[in-house]
Amino acid sequence: MSNTILVGAQWGDEGKGKIIDFLTETADIVVRSQGGNNAGHTVIVGGTKYILHLIPSGILRPGKKCVIGNGVVIDPVAVAKEIDGLREKKIKVTKDNLLISDCAHLVLPYHRVLDEQRESKKGKNKIGTTKRGIGPAYGDKAARIGLRMGDLMQPALFSEKLAQRIKENNAVLKALGAKPLKFAEVNAAYLEAGKKLAPFVGNTVVYLHEALRQKKEMLFEGAQGTFLDIDHGTYPYVTSSNTTAGGACTGSGVAPHRIDRVLGVMKAYTTRVGEGPFPTENAEFSDMLHGMGREFGATTGRARRCGWFDAVAVRYAGMINGIDDIAVTNLDGLDTLATIKICTHYKIGKKTVDVPPSDFQQLRDAKPVYIELPGWQKPTHEAKKFSDLPKNARSYLQTIAKLTGAKLTIASVGPNRDQTIVL
């Protein structure tokens, strides 16, 4: 498999967790390089559902090393709880299979309160944040006032820095009408979490470069999706990190020339959680999927907005990420449809465009131009190889590959590992 960056080619929730878990069988190391516990990867193994927020999906396979890189923002209390939850399900989590960067920044309680307050005051202009404090944590990182895992490993230094930051932030919280935080409570909770995490914390850059020297194979696990990228997404309706392939390098310390391929993951249709423009959104299609029990967020439980496959967006994602191969998930979600639409272009005013505009208001006004393909109206969840799929399902996948300009290598027809077709 060599060194592969896996990215979401849509607005997140593409089924990356399942594909990561599947690919990890042939990887030695799984690296998480950005985002925080606002991400949620759902993986089903042996009938048991695992929802992972910070720990890479590779933790579910014995003998794999999982790395949380410097580009991730970490809530130590949340990750300690996640480790405990995995252990309760008999998943081994030790310093032998999990390493956390000492340079990763911390998400603190004032980040969460600021996130909530800022979002609530936006009213109809809200972004749709998960309110986990991710944006404010990255804001402190950029402002050079953040606390890092390395600080937490030095209790006296951490407490000194935390006291100053809480004092400053309490003044802001008071101005926003929120309750001030109590230093003693926050300090005690974080120091306790720090003790639990101490065995896992170290220099991940040195570890990864030694692994490269030893020819270990790495899988870089993306969180969120291309159009939630802080630079390339539908700004301001985005997350606060670089969710695209370049972010895997800066968020891990692994140089770009060490990467062998980029795999883009996309659903056979399109979904989005939160606010922001979504050209192919379709209420009837959303209702159908929700009625099937599909498309509810792993992190928040919110019903996802659903629409037809958007080839305009995914083509652009391929350009930004340098996508070599694609994995298409949730094909079985389309099994009952007689006709399926694919958006090939947008109409904006009198202009027809084949790339998404960078301005969100223009994208909000964009009208999708569709082609229609016949559905297959047969179940696909038992297919084991490409030839097992109905002819129209194969044609649909081939059309997606042609429109997006990348090679189709994986098709997923269900949540389980064995519901994965490799071409």
Automatic annotation (TrEMBL):
One of the Pfam families matching this protein, by short name: Adenylsucc_synt
One cellular component (GO) term of this entry: cytoplasm
Protein's name according to its UniProt entry: Adenylosuccinate synthetase
Active site: 13, 41, 141
Documented EC number(s): 6.3.4.4
Pathway participation: Purine metabolism; AMP biosynthesis via de novo pathway; AMP from IMP: step 1/2
Subcellular location: Cytoplasm
Subunit structure: Homodimer.
One BP annotation, GO: 'de novo' AMP biosynthetic process
InterPro entries: Adenylosuccin_syn_GTP-bd (IPR018220), Adenylosuccin_syn_Lys_AS (IPR033128), Adenylosuccinate_synth_dom1 (IPR042109), Adenylosuccinate_synth_dom2 (IPR042110), Adenylosuccinate_synth_dom3 (IPR042111), Adenylosuccinate_synthetase (IPR001114), P-loop_NTPase (IPR027417)
Positions with a binding annotation for Mg(2+): 13, 40
Cofactor note: Binds 1 Mg(2+) ion per subunit.
Keywords carried by this UniProt record: Cytoplasm, GTP-binding, Ligase, Magnesium, Metal-binding, Nucleotide-binding, Purine biosynthesis
Gene name as annotated: purA
Binding site for GTP: 12-18, 40-42, 304, 330-332, 412-414
Primary location group: cytoplasm
Family stated for the protein in its record: Belongs to the adenylosuccinate synthetase family.
Xref: SMART domains: Adenylsucc_synt
UniProt cross-references to NCBIfam families, sorted A to Z: PRK01117.1, purA
Residues given in the record as substrate binding sites: 298-304
Organism phylogeny: Bacteria, Pseudomonadati, Verrucomicrobiota, Spartobacteria, Chthoniobacterales
Catalytic activity, reaction form: IMP + L-aspartate + GTP = N(6)-(1,2-dicarboxyethyl)-AMP + GDP + phosphate + 2 H(+)
GO molecular function: adenylosuccinate synthase activity; GTP binding; magnesium ion binding
Function, as annotated: Plays an important role in the de novo pathway of purine nucleotide biosynthesis. Catalyzes the first committed step in the biosynthesis of AMP from IMP.
